[in-house]
Design a protein that fits this description.
Shape: elongated
Distance between the termini: 54 Å
Number of strands: 6
Strand content: 5-15%
Length: 323
């Protein structure tokens, strides 16, 4: 189904320098935030305790803070609403020193007199486990990137692979900068969102690259910039519809999915916007800047076809008994 019809080819490459300046500013700004403010690791990666408490009315957060001060176990604990005013989450970076101590019972004792409530969830992650999860999370991102590099290099050629990796690093860097800016807790949900961004952005980029390769193969005399403009224009309808529908679904999760999925949805929202932008204005121009030549590409195709023809000729001779 075609929703958009074009009577001209849009000059995306003409805006590539301006787009690259914007990308450099955003990426460098993200790195500055990461270096100065740093990521706020959640319990999954830093270790600690999360306690979810639900009241039968609005939670008395100020009263809860005063009550928790009486127990040193809750030193430095933060109390935040969890989706609604009657439900809160207590986060602290400490854990009980003894396995015989039930943190739920300790919390009930500390919060006695604050109203009628129930403890819905208690999650405890030791610092050693948190460090291990963080290391494995970073390793998963690195391995995913290396796998993508190998796949794209095998399917296209090394310049396409390098361009796609630049685009993926661009997307993840800006997403991490946005997470740092708003102060979200980095946990397993955020890691899952970052890996999803890698796949989503790569899918967009591969579709554009596939169309560029097809356009270059059809017209050996075309300029690469013209082929990129035509290819991106022809995929613009698909890119727009896919990105918008995905964005609206994730935005719905962000608005109505509750606190438990808030970090995941926010990270994906940033990734969808940045990933769509990078597949058009980052990956394709980098392909040109790395010296991809239409002439050399056709020479490579001709040599490949010659080798295939020679193999077929030798196979035919062998089958006919002629050596």
């Amino acid at each position: 189904m075609e929703f958009f019809k074009y009577t001209k080819t849009f000059n995306f490459m003409g805006k590539s320098k301006l787009a690259m300046v914007l990308s450099i500013v955003l990426v460098l700004g993200s790195y500055v935030l990461l270096a100065t403010k740093g990521l706020n690791y959640g319990v999954d990666f830093a270790g600690g305790t999360v306690i979810q408490v639900k009241y039968d009315k609005n939670a008395p957060i100020d009263d809860m803070r005063e009550k928790l001060k009486s127990n040193k176990l809750f030193d430095g604990a933060s109390i935040t609403e969890f989706g609604s005013p009657d439900e809160v989450v207590i986060r602290m970076k400490s854990t009980t020193a003894s396995v015989t101590v039930d943190i739920g019972d300790v919390t009930r004792e500390a919060l006695s007199g604050t109203g009628k409530y129930e403890i819905r969830r208690v999650d405890i992650v030791g610092p050693k486990v948190g460090n291990e999860l963080r290391e494995k999370g970073i390793m998963s991102l690195i391995l995913a990137t290396i796998g993508i590099l190998i796949y794209v290099a095998f399917r296209f050629e090394w310049r396409f692979a390098v361009a796609s990796i630049f685009a993926l690093v661009h997307d993840v860097s800006i997403a991490l900068g946005a997470i740092t800016l708003v102060g979200l807790d980095v946990n397993l949900d955020v890691l899952a969102a970052l890996l999803t961004i890698l796949g989503y952005s790569l899918n967009d980029t591969i579709i554009v690259f596939d169309r560029i390769r097809e356009g270059v193969s059809e017209n050996r005399n075309s300029d690469l910039a013209d082929s990129i403009n035509e290819s991106v224009t022809r995929t613009l309808a698909r890119t727009t519809l896919t990105s918008l529908t995905t964005f609206f679904v994730v935005f719905t999760l962000f608005m109505f999915g509750g606190e438990i999925i808030h970090s995941f949805a926010f990270t994906l929202l940033v990734g969808i916007v940045v990933g769509t932008y990078s597949s058009i204005f980052v990956a394709s121009p980098i392909l040109k800047w790395f010296g991809f030549s239409v002439k050399n590409y056709h020479e490579k195709l001709a040599k490949k076809a010659q080798r295939e023809a020679e193999k077929e000729r030798m196979r035919a001779q062998y089958e006919s008994g002629v050596m």
